[in-house]
């Protein structure tokens, strides 16, 4: 479970693994060769970039030694609030872990747009927005790469020979989104939900559709 502010620094956090994120969990800057190394906040365990880890605070669980922490934890631990954090999150800023835990369906799918190469994406249809497909780079990312409002899309579930097996397409006028599942069973689970969503309906038995 996420850390309560009162517990920050009092016990060691669970470290989010480097490969669980593709961007800084604070400023959302993508990690690449230029943004240098990934750092861990010693208070909350989040993976952050060097800019967001440039703070130090005394942590109780580590004998009150000074440790590298992220900006948010620094403000909480030294007791000052950052009013900027209160700004409303944009639609893409919903954290993946938050929606995945309360979703109609979520899993990795291969995704292709226009003639770009296939790429792996963590795809989620949240319960509170069961007509929108959210796509993330990785399961712990704090910002979605894209959202697709499914209502009104046509579903084409017969792969062409050039496509990956177990693929399906969503088309609406000029926009075409191609997806591919790892197996036929997973593809059918997604199609079951998507066929309803494009008509503006939500599934009855959500729990059956959790895919880890």
From TrEMBL:
GO terms, molecular function: guanyl-nucleotide exchange factor activity; zinc ion binding
Domain of life: Eukaryota
Subcellular location: Cytoplasm, Cytoskeleton
Keywords per UniProt: Cytoplasm, Cytoskeleton, Guanine-nucleotide releasing factor, Metal-binding, Phosphoprotein, Repeat, Zinc, Zinc-finger
One GO CC annotation: cytoskeleton
Keyword Electron transport part of the UniProt annotation: no
Gene Ontology process terms (BP): cytoskeleton organization; filopodium assembly
Main localization (coarse): cytoplasm
FYVE-type domain segment(s): 18-74
Transmembrane segments: none
Domain PH residues, every copy: 102-199
Protein name: FGD4 protein
Gene: Fgd4_0
